[in-house]
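Page 42, continued from yesterday. The earlier attempt failed because a stray header line got pasted into the input along with the sequence. Redoing it now with the clean sequence only.
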Amino acid sequence: MNYRKLPAGVGDTLPAECRILTEIKVRLQNKFTACGFEPVSSAALEYYDTYAATENRIPQERMFKLTDVDGKLLVLRPDTTLSISRIAAANGVSCARLFYFADKWDLRNAGGIYDREVYQSGVECLGEEGVFSDAQAIAFAAECLKETGLENFVIDVGHVDYFKGILEESGLSDAQTEEVRAFVDAKDAPNVERALRRAGADERTVGAVLALPYLFGGEDVLDKAESLTENARARAAAEHLKKLGALLCEMGYGKYICFDLAAVRKLSYYSGAVFTVLTKEFGAPLLSGGRYDNLADGFGAHIPAVGFAIGLKRLAAALERQGSLPEIPAPALVVAADAGAECAAYRVFRRLTDCGTRARLSAETGRASAERERKSGNAVLFVTKDGAEESL
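This time it went through. Structure tokens are written below.
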């Protein structure tokens, strides 16, 4: 085995990328704090049963598992929002606006855009309900991305109740509904139709579900969506999206919004509006979120909530491709000492760093080493034996 290699789907982050991610984190953290959000941090290790025994369980094949010293099965954090829902339920937090920076781990086979270790930032608005709460979350997502420098993005907005509603009277079991959802999510129309007909869905239901991939665009698609079904739940979802779109337009975010009725991500997880952020520079969502009013129920508390998560490395890649990366600081000023002037050079180094100048104290002494630093492209301040300071 080559012990210098890493497992698939994980990677080291070198200084240049670390600086970029740190700058993105600082910008987001300042935005979160300025808008009244409080930080929270969940444990990286949790019990397997926490995620396997709830309705919103994560498939065991997607979780990194390990055994504790007492034989109990543990997992690396597979989902941050679920972790925060557990924290809120366990600590009686029924209303809060929280933010986090955290890794989550996903055991799926890595490849292409998928990582097994995902560095995320996100917000959770706990104890909030209603269309204005949804609008605030979407608007705040846009503002956060703009704060990092991202431009030219689109926010796809959907509602899981539209899909649930059009299947509500079809008689499909939960397993059959999930099968159809997965095919719709994959834009696999032939298997969508086969699964529906195999389950005995009527023609109107089949037609409505097959139309989902085409219900994408402006507000007119919501009128079309309403015309495809008489189901009250589905029509209420379309009406909710109309109100949400009107609010977002009035708030100044209409140019970012597209409606997507085929947004049918995990149905047991989300309970209402859902949204993702896409750019032409990156082939996967940079941000995803939505309403999950029932997520904390599995932990013993009902806490309505809406929020979103940002994939920070995906965001950095999109910023790079848009030419909008945060400016990387110039190399540190190198303070070099002549032999015998080490303590004087240290005092100079302390003076510079104490007043905010980015500096590095060379470990080598002598003019020759100072010249090597200069030739490598660094600005050098050389401290001589008599305490004089020379710029090289």
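Notes: The chain has a mean pLDDT of 89.
Reminder to self: strip header lines before submitting.
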